[in-house]
Amino acid sequence: MSQYTFPMSDPLPPCPDSPRSPQPPLSSLAPLVSFLARAERLLARIEPLLPPASPAPDWNAAVAFQWRKRGAAGYLQPVPRPSPIRLADLRDIDEQKARIDANTQQFVAGRPANNVLLTGARGSGKSSLIKALLNEYAARGLRVIEVEKHDLINLPDIVDLVEGRPERFIVFCDDLSFDAGDSTFRALKVVLDGSIAAAPDNVLIYATSNRRHLMPEYFEENLEAHSVGEEIHPGEAIEEKVSLSERFGLWLSFYPFDQDAYLDIVAHWLRSFGCKEAEIARAERDALNWALQRGSRSGRVAWQFAKDWAGAHGARRGRGR
Q: How many separate domains does the chain show?
């Protein structure tokens, strides 16, 4: 019987646990140990400077929230005492009040509703309407999240937080306007109606502004034939400016009050402070002088006069705006 001789393969490397395996000298580990020690000291110095983790929203803590920043992270801060103003407190804006109230009722009921842009005269009750709607429908699940203009870039994060919640959320931005090239301008456009992802049906945006088109426009932009700076197609630039306000489905315009409307608002607030009708009649001339000094007959000016006059005459504390 033939015998075969098989070639021997290369010897296997020694097992790491084998006494024959070479051990690295301790001197070669010294740089690694030194590096790790320095890294630990660096982390210990950096850790106190890092922002704490953003707290999860406490949805049971309040019906109104404000978006706040802690370092680079944002979070929803509950508002413990929202404004107590009611829809009945807002006078001489009946048409605007009826339209936004109907839109909000549709939203709270889970029916289709529009984003709303409220524009016009200062102090005419635009932001007060949003506060009053919250008081009217909070018991039916309405919530308001107030966002500053410079934080609109975080709107996608806010929408992610509330998507799927049973509540109905109005994202409220007061006194909205943009400068040319403002990055938040495009962020708001995307959330309103410009993303491939559909906006959740439990979120609407209500914004107030003194400008109808939200961005500055110039006389030289009025004619397509004229050049505007180095813009070759100025008409397209103008269309971009108008496009943001057009993404709000409902526009509500507010106008300055005449004298009778102003005095009616003054009388309402004086009654809320407990003033008698004779006192209210006696306050009319002072109210008109107050408006003349301020250069405005607005609801805000009427409220400020009523506080001043009622306080000076010892009236009780009433509801606020």
A: 2
